[in-house]
From TrEMBL, chain A:
GO terms for cellular component: plasma membrane. It comes from Ancylobacter novellus (strain ATCC 8093 / DSM 506 / JCM 20403 / CCM 1077 / IAM 12100 / NBRC 12443 / NCIMB 10456) (Starkeya novella). InterPro entries: MetI-like, MetI-like_sf. SUPFAM superfamilies: MetI-like (SSF161098). This is Binding-protein-dependent transport systems inner membrane component. Its main location: membrane. It is found in: Cell membrane. Keywords: Cell membrane, Membrane, Transmembrane, Transmembrane helix, Transport. Belongs to the binding-protein-dependent transport system permease family. GO terms for biological process: transmembrane transport. Residues 76-260 form the ABC transmembrane type-1 domain. Pfam families: BPD_transp_1.
Length: 272, 278
């Protein structure tokens, strides 16, 4: 009998094991849903998969009377727009501020403690302030996302800049590099893979802020819809929407990972 | 011609004196090796020559001029580790310095100038035995090959002084031996000054033309930080006349072969007339 940590599954078995929890959850839901529907055919809490499908098809292919839109695509478009704008601005801020502040000692001494304190402010607590300053429109939602994730990305990039060995920076100077050339030629390329990683890690938080902002005030969006139909106990909308958001988040994460692999092959080699 | 002078150098960190009264004058084309126990300040001495650290007192002069207060292209360096850039290919690493010098904003050359530089870089890579690895990233190279790359990267800038900070410390004995040969040859080919720090005595006397030992002359047991290290012995490891005569023999042999094979004396070589005159 070996220790349990020394037993590893074969590749085929690994695949089955990975699928197992997903299958278990679906099966458990089906069993519970069937049991409830057998007692009360109009049960709203655990609808059958057929009614999920019917609802999604309806929302994706028929024009809503009130908004004159295909609701699923309209909501997706609105939420993704907010998410991408927020993430994009945060990533850009993280890159520029993180590199400049991380690389130049005077700026670093000035701003590092400030960023550290700033990142500890709970973003949702200042949401009312954002609503007061920026109104109830798109700007306050995007500012909320930026407020929530930019400090994290800035600090992560700064740490990466600090982790570049001094030897490399000295060597770059003996090759005649100016500050600008070292930023663009040595620091930026080495920081980019880490930036992509920290955007990946921020995806969950970014979705949280999008949905929180939409739940409070919006005319549309995935989070808005979920909180709207909650009043009617419309689980046939909520659960597919949650699954859809999860799928979107997964695809973004996967896309970013592939992007990092394709654009920065040296980073993968180093990790291996 | 490159001469280096350490003029009464002191280095202190607060109360702690690391180096005191370091005086040293180096002639052109020396291979200086600094030896000494760990933590005594030999690397600090090298870093001051690199301007990575600034002496508390005293001056360092290259060709009679005080050195710049920050690292510059006239002093190349190879560290024990992290001397190359992991995000550039081998060829890209070697081309980095000249590209920066030629293109301040983009740091990149295009077209004919790029091809000319690529040719120069490839010739240098071939010299250090890395030509077939030009497209690889440093992480795909062995430790010895990474140090060869770091040498090529520094040499393409044609520095007056090349500084080596325990460059072979992390290599296995076989690789180390071939690196010794390479560095010795590069030193003769490029007619530059090399300053190397090591704690390997045979290596020091194999490569160096001058070997200085850095250590503390005196210590106070009650206050060990009060006295710093300095140069305690200074060997001329290979007499200049011996070196010169070896060079002379090689040159004379080359001339003899040229004459025997019926060719006339090459006129473009600056060394030949000097030797003929002697």
């Amino acid at each position: 009998m070996r220790r349990i940590i020394n037993y590893a599954p074969r590749p085929g078995v690994r695949l089955i094991l990975a699928a197992l929890p997903f299958i278990l959850v679906v099966v458990a839901y089906l069993l519970a849903s069937n049991a409830r529907l057998a007692v009360e055919p109009a049960d709203k809490l655990m609808p059958a998969f057929a009614s999920f499908w019917a609802t999604i098809v309806r929302m994706a292919t028929t024009i809503d009377v009130a908004t004159k839109q295909y609701l699923l695509w309209w909501d997706t478009w609105l939420s993704l727009q907010r998410l991408f704008l927020g993430l994009g601005i945060s990533a850009l801020m993280g890159l520029v501020l993180g590199i400049v502040v991380g690389f130049i000692p005077y700026l670093r001494s000035t701003f590092e403690p400030f960023f550290a304190a700033f990142s500890l402010i709970p973003p949702l607590a200042v949401l009312p302030i954002l609503f007061i300053i920026f109104g109830l429109g798109e700007v306050s939602k995007i500012v909320l996302i930026v407020f929530g994730i930019a400090p994290f990305i800035i600090r992560d990039v700064m740490l990466r800049v600090a982790a570049i060995p001094t030897e490399q920076i000295i060597k770059a100077q003996t090759l005649g590099g100016s500050t600008w050339q070292m930023i663009t030629g040595v620091v930026l390329p080495q920081v980019m893979p880490r930036l992509i990683d920290s955007v990946r890690l921020s995806l969950g938080a970014a979705w949280l802020f999008v949905i929180a902002a939409e739940a409070i005030t919006a005319e549309g969006g995935l989070g808005y819809r979920i909180f709207l139909v909650r009043r009617y106990l419309a689980m046939d909308v909520i659960l597919p929407y949650v699954a859809w958001i999860t799928l979107l988040a997964f695809l973004m994460d996967y896309g970013l990972r592939r992007l990092a692999d394709a654009a920065y092959p040296w980073d993968r080699i180093k990790a291996a | 011609m490159t001469t280096i002078v350490f003029d009464n150098i002191w280095k202190e960190y607060g109360e702690h004196i690391v180096l005191e009264r370091v005086n040293l004058a180096l002639d052109d084309h020396e291979f200086l090796v600094i030896i000494g126990p760990s933590g005594v300040g030999k690397t600090t001495l090298l870093r001051m020559l690199l301007s990575q650290e600034i002496p508390t007192r005293g001056r360092i002069l290259i060709d009679g001029e005080p050195i710049a207060a920050e690292p510059t292209a006239d002093r190349g360096v190879v560290f024990q580790r992290y001397s190359v850039f992991p995000h550039r290919t081998v060829l890209g690493n070697v081309m980095m310095g000249p590209q920066w010098a030629a293109s301040p904003i983009l740091g990149r050359l295009f077209g004919a100038r790029r091809r000319a530089l690529e040719e120069r870089a490839m010739a240098l890579l071939a010299r250090v035995g890395l030509a077939e690895h030009a497209a690889k990233y440093p992480a795909q190279l062995s430790g010895g090959m990474q140090q060869r790359l770091a040498l090529a990267q520094a040499l393409i800038m044609k520095p007056k002084v090349l500084l080596l900070d325990e460059p072979f410390g992390a290599l296995d004995p076989g690789t180390r031996k071939s690196m010794h040969e390479l560095v010795g040859e590069l030193w003769e080919e490029n007619r530059m000054t090399i300053v190397m720090v090591t704690h390997d005595l045979p290596e020091a006397f194999l490569l160096g033309t001058r070997v200085v030992a850095v250590d503390r002359r005196r210590t106070d047991p009650q206050a060990p930080e009060r006295f710093g290290a300095t140069i305690v012995s200074d060997f001329e490891a290979k007499c200049r006349s011996v070196r010169e005569s070896r060079l002379f023999e090689a040159e004379r042999e080359r001339m003899r072969l040229t004459l025997v094979s019926g060719h006339s004396l090459p006129q473009d070589d600056a060394l030949v007339p000097a030797l003929v005159k002697d």
